[in-house]
Amino acid sequence: MKRLGVLGSTGSIGVSTLEIVAAHPDQYQVVSLSAGNNLKRLKEQIQRFRPQVVSVVCPDAARLLRDELGPDGPQVTSGVEGLIACASHEQIDMVVTAVVGSAGLVPTMAAIEAGKDIALANKETLVVAGSLVMEAVARKGVNLYPVDSEHSAIFQSLEGHQKSDVRRLILTASGGPFRDRPMADLNQVTLADALAHPNWDMGRKITIDSATMMNKGLEVIEARWLFDLPAEQIAVHIHPQSIVHSMVEYVDGAVMAQLGIPDMKTPIAYALSYPDRLALDLPALDLCALKNLSFAEPDLDKFPCLALAFQALAAGGTAPAVLNAANEIAVDAFLREQIGFLDIADTIGRVLDSHVPNALEHIDDALRADIWGRQQARLILAQKS
Ligand SMILES: NC(=O)C1=CN([C@@H]2O[C@H](COP(=O)(O)OP(=O)(O)OC[C@H]3O[C@@H](n4cnc5c(N)ncnc54)[C@H](OP(=O)(O)O)[C@@H]3O)[C@@H](O)[C@H]2O)C=CC1
Ligand SMILES: CC(=O)[C@@H](O)[C@H](O)COP(=O)(O)O
Ligand SMILES: [Mn+2]
To answer: Does the keyword Ion transport apply (predicted)?
Structure first.
């Protein structure tokens, strides 16, 4: 029996994780659940999974929930302290980090410091402080398994091989909803257009990241830290079908890939059950029905966010944390329909260009850069309105 903490249980990854748990009650038990503001869904999950501790963002919501659940309910916590409590409860073996954004960093670090294994969906954690997170993982001797589909594919394609034999990692990208739109049209696209991902059903923030291709930029930085390889050995290929989830090219020319239907349950389950495989009730990949699997270089002029991510990775130190912070603010403004699609990349580029990176020696350096990047992005957005 593996005992789980699920951070971000009310979101897309969180719900898929709990569906896997529900299908394998003899193998997984839920110790903690953390939500943001979706109390209705959290209450349903509490009924179903009977956790010992839960957290929500607002203290007022926590008070209401505590009153409603009564003395027989779980411990109800809130804010960052609540996330930390859900990440480090003594009975937890593994924490699934499915919170969105840099809010995932502090609880993920708390889980690592408490000796928990990590199933990492929250890519922003590695973007903001990858070197520090991976140093903590090594120091505490815990396991960190990727949930992100591309990184799970690379993890699987690396099994049984040596890092020194890798020529490059090839991350596949769908290209998002605007892959085939002329660049000149991108100033007119709507929120609804950007939320219409061609292949994946995901939360709103990552769906916009896919439309700008910042998602792939964040994933390049995530791969750099997860697999300890420099940016020069990480390539991105547009693969519209999202069937080949990513690849590893070896020095002898062999290319190892992982294929599957685009459903996050497969990589989530592998992170939960590694090195075993869980039986999942998913449709098989119908190889004979695949008429075309294509690959192409990304267009960095049309998708400047991807270039900005490479720029931040090359700058190092606090630059990726600033890139991520500016992206979170700009995407939030786009989701509120306060800015246009092209304003996202413009804002991030201007924030990044005004940043002089500092060294990342402590988690506080990353958190300070995160705050600074948010402030700068808000200033730029205020000038736009
Ligand atoms: N969805 C996918 O297929 C994939 C997602 N990922 C990554 O996984 C992470 C989660 O993505 P996804 O599930 O799509 O996102 P969702 O938006 O669907 O879910 C996010 C979860 O985090 C909670 N949350 C949001 N903000 C906060 C906060 N400040 N403090 C605490 N909790 C918060 C939400 O709570 P509530 O809803 O209750 O407000 C929700 O439970 C992201 O980092 C994403 O990049 C990676 C690969 C694929
Ligand atoms: C499912 C997953 O891992 C997402 O990160 C997905 O890859 C997004 O698709 P894009 O390739 O369009 O960014
Ligand atoms: Mn991904």
So the answer is: no
Q: Which of 111, 175, 384, 147 is nearest to 272 (CA)?
A: 147
Q: Is the CB of 215 under 6 A from ligand 2?
A: yes
Distance 99 CA to ligand 1 centre (A): 4
> Is 142 inside a domain boundary?
yes
Residue to mutate (ligand 2; options 120, 122, 149, 264; most atoms within 8 A of CB): 149
Domain-embedded: residue 362: no
Domain-embedded: residue 280: no
Q: How far is the CA of 176 from the centre of ligand 2 (A)?
A: 8
Average pLDDT, the chain: 98
Q: Is the ipTM of this complex over 0.90?
A: yes
Let me know if residue 187 belongs to a domain: no
pTM: predicted TM-score of the whole model, two decimal places: 0.98
Chain segment 47-89, per-residue pLDDT in tens: 999 999 999 999 999 999 999 999 999 999 999 999 999 999 9
**111 lies in which domain range?**
2-146
Tally the domains of the chain.
Answer: 1
* Whole-angstrom distance, CA of residue 76 vs CA of residue 61: 10
User: Is the minimum distance from the CB of 122 to ligand 2 under 6 angstroms?
Assistant: no
